[in-house]
Design a protein that fits this description.
Layout lengths: L49 H14 L3 E5 L2 H12 L5 E5 L4 H13 L3 E5 L3 H8 L5 E5 L11 H10 L3 E5 L4 H4 L9 E5 L13 E5 L1 H14 L5 H11 L2 H19 L5 E5 L9 H7 L6 E6 L5 H7 L4 E2 L9 E3 L11 H7 L5 E5 L5 H8 L6
Parallel strand pairs: 2-3, 2-4, 4-5, 5-6, 10-11
Antiparallel strand pairs: 1-7, 6-7, 8-9, 9-12, 11-12
Helix pairs in contact: 1-8, 2-3, 2-7, 4-5, 9-13
Length: 377
Amino acid sequence: MEGLELSEPVNYQEDRHDETAASLNFPIFQSSAYVMPKGEKYRYTRESNPTVENLAIKISALEGTEKTTCFSSGMGAVFTTLFTILKPGSTLVIHRDMFSRTYRLSTDLLGAWGVKTRVADPGTDNLLEAIESGADLVLVEAITNPILRVNDIGKIATRIHSQGGLLAVDSTIATPYNLNPASLGADVVLHSVSKYISGNNDAIGGACSGQTKLIDRIDSMRRTTGPSMDPFTAFLVNQGIKTLDLRMKRINSNAERIAEAINHFKGIQEVYYPGLPSHPDHRIAREMLKGYSGIVTFKSRNSIDLVSLFKKLRTIIPANTLGGVGTIISHPATMSHRNLSAQEREKLGITDTMFRLSVGIEDPDLILKDLEVFNGH
């Protein structure tokens, strides 16, 4: 055995980390605690872990922010941010067209806690109007889920800062490759790193980035409430993040081609995609985004049996997620937005004929061949 004399005593119960080992990948520190006093910086993994810290540093570099803290899920990041900044009597402004769990958290749980939540209809102008009477925090998605409105982060930041409030932006769909909200005035940038940042559908996690003073407060709340990222998840996300720019270049290109193609399908009634000139926020998207990202939402002209549809697909995978290297189709009414009432979905135009396509890195011709099922082929 190289490096170990057989006469040397071995304690099989003890691990000794060689800090000089020049590993190509940052190691997984799968330890619940650290030997004191040398391990005082990390102390206990729920509070801090070297592998998770390494990922946080990389996300800060991507977003151009001073500091990042990581979470066990995207919703853990949203929850902790809201409960750090808001208190009973505070006012929160959101928009109706956001991920349903975030919407429910903002309207139901925070409402029961005494926070006043003001809900704006889709579109930047409606958000600006809702902010006019003042707010402590505005929470927006840069590109909304699933109808893909693009919010003008710069205008919203200017308005809420003039009122003395803060702006938090969920930039999961936009990705750090296409947008850096902090450069436009956002105080907090949120991500579900389970999606594009990781990119392989193998990890669940969240992140929150911003200036050190505010992120330290959010990080302290994370340590208290416990939605902390585990080191193995951080390792997986760190592996995925290495190819983010390569993946997003391909995904941006594929999605744009597919949106343009299916916009002419006879079997498709409407296509929602910021890169199309017909999109209501195309001008904002063109000016604010480096690329239009990988989500294409559309409505079929006719109702379709989901079980039959999903069985016909060969390349596209039906699943309740987005942001991976493989193309995924979901049905918002029964998947991502099933927690909204029928009336709430109707207000957003989320019908039984709406589908959300998360475009991957495959040959776009293979994706379009599958989508011919919506064209009667």
